[in-house]
Amino acid sequence: MPVFKFTLNGAPVSVDTEGDRPLIDVLREEFGLTGTKFGCGEGQCRACTVMLDGRPSFSCVNTIRMVAGRSVVTIESLSKDGKLTPVQQAFLDEAAIQCGYCTPGMIMAATALLDRDPNPTEATITTSMNMHICRCTGYPRIVEAVKTAARLKAMAESREVNHVAAE
Amino acid sequence: MLPQNRAAAMADPERYELREAPVRFSGVDRRGFIQLTASGLLIAVFATESDAQWGRAVSSLDARLIIGKDGRITILNGKVEEGQGARTQLGMVAAEELKVPVSQIDVVMADTDRTPDDGLTAGSRTTPSTVPAVRQAAAAAREILVAAAAAKFQVDKSAITIKDGAAQSGSRRFTYADLASSDGFTESMKRAPSGATLTAPAEWTVLGKPQTRLNGSDIVTGKYQFPSDIKRPGMIYGCVLRPPSYGATLQSIDLESAKTIPGATAIRDGEFVAAIAPNAHAARKAVRAMSDSAKWQEKPHPSSTVLFDHLKKTAKGAGRGNTSGEPDKILATASVKLQAEYNVAYVQHAPMEPRSAVAEWTAGKLTVWTGTSNPFAVRAALAQAFGIQPAALRVIVPDFGGGFGGKHTGEAAIEAARIARDVKRPVWLRWSRQEEFTWAYSRPAAVITCEAALDGNKLAAWKMTNINSGTAALDTPYDAANRDTRFIEADSPLRQGSYRCLASAANNFARESFIDELAAKAGLDPLEFRLANLTNPRLRAVLIAAAERFNFKARWRKKQAGRGVGLACGTDKGSVVAACVEVELGGAGQPPRLVEIVQAFECGPIMNPVGLRSQMEGCILMGLGAATREEMVFENGRVTSNMFSRYRVPRFADVPPKMDLIFLDRKDTEPAGAGETPIIAVAPAMANAHFHGSGHRLRSMPLKG
After folding, report:
1. A109 and A148 housed in the same domain
2. Positive or negative CA dihedral for B250, B313, B516, B560?
């Protein structure tokens, strides 16, 4: 079987497997990264969202062959040293979790959205996350969480700037 | 456990459980096994386990609650967490009675080796049955703490106060950790987990305050292992071959074709055929390879285009009724009367996590991790399927990715265990989305007829008959001395079973639409007509609260082009709900669009406002899906609405711009569940709003203008 090399959560990895195997299966079965969830297998629910070269992408339709040489980031690598990111913290605080199965995909999408647009309107949040299904359905709480995350992120960044300035 | 629960279940079993003719979905073939997979769970629940649907009593406190030497307290309960918030609620309840912070509590759920059998997680029963059991256990443990502290300090129990998780007398403190290390502790925990004094709602300090999900950190970091995330040493991956259509039987198949996929093999047990491979993708490909070689005998199957005629044609007799007075006599002679028929399509639960299981046999003992709302019944089903004792079986239910009444069964558990028995390794199995849509059971479709006579603005006679979908909330909450409500079984083309509120949504859609039609007939506004025929004070309270906040009377009198307003109310499972909505009319064949909803709800004293809000929003939006676009479509035994691209569930963009929720907090009443009833008002309110805006009555769900 062919060997595919790619960058996973910042580290170079390789996997010896069939090229048509979905990325999500490789992440979950070969690397034990089960935070990425399977919902539909057809790119319609986005539960399986990961970052591919810095952009949110579904991992169910993408095969491992398509990922070779590229960079993949999964939910497991967001929080560092046990500290939640603003988006993760906001999902907790705003009770944007019901069953929690869509949550990792939502958090990946929200993280990417805030990187592009630090202060999105409700309409922007709705549009950019509309392909994500929360069947429970916690959409109103998730929208609140993204708005809260934007505030938390701005606060954290201004603290960082102050910290750097103080140094 | 609680006699009234048992009585409720016995009186109305169909309301909660899968009820199906033995359809031949591709389970397994041996006679005992197929009965089990297709209808065996029904037998398991209602014959051998009939007393257990709502659980078994716990006689000793330590079966319900463990106090560790570190002072941490573990609550054991057999309920499951599927997003409805039971874990958090039960943790809060325990913290309240123990007088400790919620963070000191661990909640262990649904593990047949560790937790009590608290029955099926359904029917909004956690709040009225398991919550009291946990409250009692926690209060009993607190009483033990107080007694031990009083003995140690040589003071009267009345001199002990509990603060900051410790029994205190003056400056002396005695904690749960101290208790766990004290003499006689183990024996003291053998007392019955009942008879303790509970904290009154007015005294609550933990309950009634917002509490977010207890294991939420592990969810947002992706660490939490859902059933489909379980991995065991030496585990391999299974995939089951499904028939091409309902009722198809396997004539021949080439199992060797599975081996064209590297590492894959196949097993066959009569009609049960599965592939096993080192990874899930290979297992799926092996099933496809075998599928190409399979020959099936298909049989005719009614299509969704003729569904409602089929249900009417196959309706079995007069059904079971609930009659009082002389409705027929009054209807025969009444001068003002009305009749209408309503239809409700099948819908799917479509939880985000498909059915899945990991099964592992070790030395004759079977352990299964699976997402089911019915852990002990699944254990019974597995025991029956494999001819082993329940004691040799363990079913573990990690918090799972949604159920909504759709996971009362254990199909994936049985399938994974069947494969694992042959291959002698742990087996992982997860249904595909297409399998979920096709072979999971649906919410029953319904044909509902309503007939009523009016005497002025009062209901003189009321008749309502539900074909196929069930009795939940079939009895009218309106005052009608002369009434007949009736449920008639029919042949269901699809597997059908429970759902969030099950038949209540259909029955309330029909009743609240028909009440609206009667209001128009009587020449009254829909609110006035309801209030004239409704004495239930709780239902009146939510109806009035929603109508006032929405300014319903004024907005109903004023017509707006392309828009309409409507309302609906209802009651089920001990709670009451009312909604006022504004809709934008859709084009021809299109559903109306919900632009505003004011919904009022009351379920007794509010235990967790955060959880309650989530349930209410979730119900409204899930109800919106079934009201507007969700519909199972099938033709010649093939479900064609078998993917999210063909079965349209609500999306972010469908959330109405204005959602105003009113929660009435009734500390003077017993708490009722909140995860279901808020779903029943949105569809009829929208149909009524569509009529208000267009003059055209929509009598079929999903609504199509």
Report:
1. yes
2. positive
